[in-house]
């Protein structure tokens, strides 16, 4: 708008709006020069005006230096100082002046009404310049109010973010350990113990059936004690016995993974050596928990040297990372919803921040418990799909088809998808009663048995 106004008055000028990046250097270089005894006019936005040092020619210095004209006062005094600081840099002369309208947003929202009433009583005309300490003081007070308001907003946001930052440190530390994998075994043991503690604390002395179902669902084992022992023992004893049983089952599961995969890896290494190749490369091992199929990538040579011990470590890392990421993303969405909902607590004369901290802690504790349970449940059910042993099948009978496991949408085997053909031998033809081939007997013909009755009333009764 200012540029159009100057064009109407045939005043040459340049515009700095942080858009013409290539030309702005030339515009800044010419901004402090004198052309035909006249100074150069440059219009700059706040973004383009920051951090710009304009070098003045000797003629401009003699004329008084760079003159800064501000079209409004900003909400922050720091921005005004930034713009004023374009003049008088490094000992150069200069001046600055700001024009303010009572219709500006800053004056409308934060200026005192007494100032406006006082100026009305003075009978000043519209458009007349007002230079009064009272007006200047009113503007500064308005800016202080805005700055205090913005400071309160930033402080409030920081207090909310501190809650998330504490949770973020816990999750990111846990994820970093799973990603590096150096202490993945210790993390798994801690996860096992925390999960067992949550399961035991969740059920009372009379909830053995629910406890049994939860143990079976999470750890894929039966409780190591019966109902009578469950009611008699305290929670500490239950945790100790259940943890030992779960840890033994977990170790057996990891050993089983290595035992199944090791012969295949050793065969691949022998084939490479037989072909004159150095054992190297990566291999993707499918491991399923009954619902999804994970492709765990391991180094062939390392797997052969360690008898597939690195497979169990890679499997644990993959499960921990996947579980942490999925649950943390869901938790972030729930925290955003919580932050919006707690604002209504101010209507009940309660501090929303206190409620947010309390609910956030409970939600985080619940999320960690769910994350521990899910990761352990997947690890306890992990197994390598094995092909069934081949049986001697006659050549004239079709062989049974085996389902091909490939991770599609949802990670389920293709054979379990709706509409998939059933797995098993297919019948050779339509199944029905076996009839002897012979002449066809009509329904009203005499029955061949010699009873003298019609066929439909004797042996043909009930046949279509």
Task: Describe what is shown at a glance.
Helices cover 53% and strands 8% of the residues. It has 464 residues and is mainly alpha-helical. The chain folds into two domains: 2-148, Rossmann fold, CATH 3.40.50; 181-381, Helical scaffold and wing domains of SecA (Orthogonal Bundle), CATH 1.10.3060.10.
Key traits:
53% helix, two-stranded antiparallel ribbon, mainly alpha, two-stranded parallel sheet, 2 domains
Structure report:
A hairpin with a 4-residue loop joins strand 7 and strand 8. The protein has two domains: 2-148, 3-Layer(aba) Sandwich (Rossmann fold), CATH 3.40.50.300; 181-381, Helical scaffold and wing domains of SecA (Orthogonal Bundle), CATH 1.10.3060.10. Helix 9 packs across helix 15. The longest helix is centred in the middle third of the chain and has 48 residues, at 133-180. The protein is elongated and about 130 Å long. The protein is built from 15 helices and eight strands. The chain has helices spanning 2-8, 21-31, 46-49, 58-63, 77-84, 105-110, 113-121, 133-180, 184-202, 208-219, 227-232, 235-274, 300-306, 309-341, 352-381; strands at 13-16, 34-35, 38-39, 41-44, 66-70, 94-98, 282-288, 293-299. The strands form four sheets. Strands 1-4 form a two-stranded parallel ribbon. The model is unreliable at 393-437 (pLDDT under 50). The termini are far apart. It has 464 residues and is mainly alpha-helical.
